[in-house]
Amino acid sequence: MFEKLDLNKTKTPFISAIFILLITTVLVLSNAFNDYRLKTNLTAFQKREMKSSVENFILTIDTIRKELKENPGREEINLSDENIKEKTLAFARKIVHESTFSNGAYLWINEVRNFQGGDNYGIRQVHGNLPETEGLLLSTSMQDAKGNFPYLTELEGIRKNGEIFYRYHFKEYQSDKISEKITYAKLYEPYNWIICTGTYLNSMYEPAGGVSRGKKIAFYTSCLLLSLISLLLFAYIIFSSHYRSKKLLIETELLKGKVAHDAMTGASSRSFGTSLLQKYLKNFQTNGQNYSIAILDIDNFKNINDKYGHNSGDTVIKNLVNTIKESQSANDHIIRWGGDEFILTYKHHLDDLDSILDSLNKKIAGQTVKLDDHREIKYTISIGASHFSEKDTSISDTVKRIDDALYLAKRVKNSHYIIEL
Questions:
Q1: pLDDT band at 255 (very low <50, low <70, confident <90, very high)
Q2: 227 CB contacts (<8 Å, ≥6 apart)?
Q3: What are phi and psi of 292, to 5 degrees?
Q4: Which region, left, alpha or beta, applies to residue 198 given φ > 0 means left and ψ of -120 to 50 means alpha?
Q5: Which value, to the nearest 10 degrees, does the dihedral of the CA atoms of residues 90, 93, 98, 103 take?
């Protein structure tokens, strides 16, 4: 009635299942151990790189301070200590603002005014990611996103040892995501500056599943770049000091990066604008943050050049740029795309773009430009605009769309046209 169980038939599959289970368990445990070991090693490596970067940066600004003190230049023979401090701070600020690192690391400087702590114990002098916070008064009662007191921790460590590694939780750059950061801070005693660098832990390794190959490459590459930049900067300062350079502006050329401006108008250059649009498109594709992009040019600009001359045409273009800048916020950009053609970017004006462009059109049309020979010119502009689309594979797709909108606006002139998605 019942079939007899044949153990010989079940023995091989059973042993195979046990063997596979054991191998799988070993692989999982091995992978977990390797991830733990790698995370530990990555953290230790990052600490060494952070400390090295801060110490090299301190060595750099100290070299600058001493150079200013010993060789101020003919035009600045009697520099006061306060003047030297201000110039050293200006140089440090320029370096920090123009440095970018792929793993999200950046530098900042807090100046301590009261080592006992409390409200207004210090002031934010420089910040690589949030320059708008420079001048912010600090308090040891300030909390991070998890209720910890990072400024109190930092100040206590500085008072005790002159340096400290610590962690706290903060929003990621241009995101609402809260992540844990690792930070190294060291005191620069001549000015009571706390020089800091930090990065998010998830920029070094994935929180789950181990560290991907791409993340490893990005992390080690960024750390290497950080060290190389510090070494190159130090070598450049020593070279400049040896030849007693009269000015310090040359040093910043090594760290200009992608920041560039159009020489005639002061607007952002096309190369900078291209990088900015690529960054915005990546933000849109990554986290859905959209932007308003507009393109404009001057109506009948060739007639202005032919009638009044190219110098007068340049005067009109400069007037246009200055007028646009007056109506833009700190997060907006004006990019000279070519000739009399400009691209505008708006970060926080997705809903009221129509009224903004209409107001800009009317403001331009209502102006009168005075030329050097006392003649006057009135001019108008046409504007096309749109936003990023999920179908955009590159900024060329976006620029073509807003260029099509400009073409539609040109049909009536002194107008604007928005292609809604």
A1: very low
A2: 49, 52, 53
A3: -95, 130
A4: beta
A5: 160
Please tell me the number of Cα atoms within 13 Å of 411 on its side-chain side: 6
Helix H or strand E segment including 331: none
Q: Tokens in use for 320?
A: 């246009």
246 C-beta neighbours (distance < 10 Å), count: 12
Beta bridge partners of 90: none
pLDDT, tens digit, for every residue of 10-30? Answer: 445 545 556 555 665 655 565
Please check whether residue 382 is in contact with residue 413, taking contact to mean a CB–CB distance below 8 angstroms. Answer: yes
Q: Are 317 and 298 in contact (CB under 8 A)?
A: yes
Q: In angstroms, rounded to a whole number, what is the distance separating the alpha carbons of residues 228 and 234?
A: 10
- The C-alpha atoms of residue 223 and residue 322 are separated, in whole angstroms, by 41
Give the C-alpha separation, 62 to 255, whole Å: 18
Closest CA to 421 of 276, 293, 286: 293
* pLDDT for the residue 103: 63
Does residue 399 surpass a pLDDT of 50?
yes
Tell me the per-residue pLDDT of 100-141, one tens digit each, with 9 for 90 and over. 665 667 889 999 999 999 999 999 999 988 889 999 999 999
CA distances from 378 to 70, 231, 301, 313, 334 (A): 55, 54, 11, 12, 21
Q: What pLDDT does 281 receive?
A: 95
Question: Residue 363's closest CA among 308, 421, 416, 291?
Answer: 416
Torsion, CA 322, CA 325, CA 327, CA 331, rounded to 10: 180
pTM, to two decimals: 0.43
Q: Taking the CA atoms of the chain, what radius of gyration do you get in angstroms? A: 29
Amino acid at 90: A
Contact criterion met (CB below 8 Å) for 233 and 254: yes
Report how far residue 124's alpha carbon sits from residue 296's, in angstroms, rounded to the nearest whole number. 39
Distance (Å, whole) CA 359 – CA 353? 10
Q: Across-strand partners of 387?
A: 292
Question: Which amino acid, residue 414?
Answer: N
CA distances from 263 to 55, 104, 304 (A): 36, 30, 21
Residue 381 C-beta-side C-alpha neighbours within 13 Å = 28
Closest CA to 118 of 152, 88, 144: 152
Per-residue pLDDT of 283-312, as tens digits, reads 999 999 999 999 999 999 999 999 999 999
